[in-house]
């Protein structure tokens, strides 16, 4: 099985899951139906299934048309009754070809946000996969639009508990902007500096910076590093606030500092 992105809109990725023994594909968060349909037509594929992480239109806008064209299965938050054929929630499982994905609820960006995690290894070289929508990006995390800092921190902790070699498939190409903020908090972080240089090269060659690896995020992503005193103190300074002592308040300061960063 392989995963690759189809770029959509200004900075979205629709992740496509393909199996060498199948004429079908699965799509993750297809906000634009035409992009998926064009791929299927050009490569003689048919759409078998869709995974939805949350309800925002740039992740769901193409689903109605895709269902009409392909009668595919759609897995996602149970309240999306007009779109979802197989409602799922925390702890459920979804089988995609040879891989079984565990559904992980990660409310924070939205209250219905789900991630899909696979740790079954068809071959010794395979690594775990996480389709995480707008919960975690390379170098960043989603804005807290419906949830709370407490919920978002809990989502970060859930992801941080996964194996370090997990491949992180976020849905937006925000990396270089995220890294500018991360560097403002940790200007001497050599792992971050190295990651920035690598991603600049990727983007100069019009290559995606995703997927990333969880161990990379733990070393560079400020939202997985809000326990580090110097980092959270710098965020508080950017807000002209006293550094928070409580873990949720410290996370909130880092998130709010990012929200106003330019």
Summarize the structure.
With 262 residues, the protein is an alpha/beta fold. It is built from 9 helices and 14 strands.
Key terms:
262 residues, alpha/beta, Metallo-beta-lactamase, Chain A, 6-stranded mixed beta sheet, 14 strands, globular
Textual characterization of the structure:
The protein has helices at 33-43, 57-60, 63-70, 149-160, 175-185, 190-204, 214-220, 229-238, 247-260; strands at residues 2-8, 12-18, 24-28, 46-51, 73-77, 86-88, 93-96, 99-105, 114-118, 129-133, 136-137, 140-141, 167-170, 212-213. A hairpin with a 5-residue loop joins strand 2 (12-18) and strand 3. The protein has a 6-stranded mixed sheet with strand order 1-2-3-4-5-6, with helices on one face. Strands 7-8-9-10-13-14 form a 6-stranded mixed sheet. The chain has a single domain (2-260), classed as Ribonuclease Z/Hydroxyacylglutathione hydrolase-like (Metallo-beta-lactamase, Chain A). Helix content is 35%, strand content 24%. Helix 5 (175-185) packs antiparallel against helix 6 (190-204) and helix 8 crosses helix 9. The protein has 262 residues and is α/β, with parallel strands linked by helices. The protein contains 9 helices and 14 strands.
